[in-house]
Amino acid sequence: ARTLRDGVKDPVEATAAFQAAIELGAPLEIRRELQCHLERNSEHKELVNAIKGEFHSLDEAELKWSYMKFARAMEAAGDLNGALEVYVELAKNASNKPASESAARLYRQIEDYAGLLKFWKARSLVVSDPELRVTLAFRMGELCEGKLQDYVEAKSHYERILDLAPNYVPALEALERVYTRLKEWSGLAGIYEQRSVLAGNDNAKALQLHRAASIFENRLNNVERAVGFYKRALEFAPDFPPSLDACTRILLASDSWHELASVLTNAALASNDESVIVGLYYRSARVNAERIGNVPLAIDYLRKCLELSPGFLPAHNMLKELAAQAGMYAEL
Prior knowledge:
By secondary structure, this protein is an all-alpha fold. 78% of the residues lie in helices and 0% in strands. The protein has helices at 2-7, 11-23, 28-40, 44-52, 60-76, 80-90, 97-109, 113-126, 130-145, 151-164, 169-182, 185-198, 202-218, 223-236, 241-253, 257-270, 274-292, 295-308, 313-325. Helix 7 (97-109) runs antiparallel to helix 8. The longest helix is centred in the C-terminal third of the chain and has 19 residues, at 274-292. The N and C termini lie far apart (116 Å).
């Protein structure tokens, strides 16, 4: 066989000679040599039979390795369903990641996405590694969300990830998409709140909390919860424009004058833009003077406005009115 293979260069006759040697009881090494010869010459169907012929002589550890070769040879020979069946059986062993990956690849290749989901579900029952369980759950969620368009089941897989890894950002981002599509607004608000915890800076935290507040205000009609989230956003960024505008609008509509004045003043203290600071102090002064009745504090804020912008006429005019009302004639 070796002479026919290497000297005569007749692969067909070499195969026949190898097979004759094996029938006469040649050792396992000769079987492996035949397999290498068949693989080199792309004789995949014959390779399948050659590998199958060695099963009876192998122990359990060798048999697992040989079955992987067997499945790969079947795949190369075009028997995808047969190869898939072997990969799936081997993947029942939690530690056999190559078989699992090969099975998933073939399911995708034959576009059997329902079968792939079923396979991953079975696989998730036998693995104990938390990271691997998270990976499988995320893959199942992506499969349901994308190819199968089953958003309810996708949600269940993504939610299960948060039980294992509450800070897993890809799952949070995926749930944001799924909750939006399913119009599950309470869940979406919860995702934004969780993402605020993971945000890297105060403005990013404020943005996520603002999104949660907007859900409560515009989707759930829960103004009280919305105001709470807007205020939490302003705790991280007191001059964050979207939350500031929304919060002042709600507080103004509910006649919450003390809270409104506090929000405006805190925003003025946090801002670095002089024109914005002037406007915020002026608005706070009007609330204090006209709604709360705290004229001295209003006058103090108007003075701050004029320190920054001496030509700001609204502050000048209001300061004149308040000084006259308070009998502060020297000030007037």
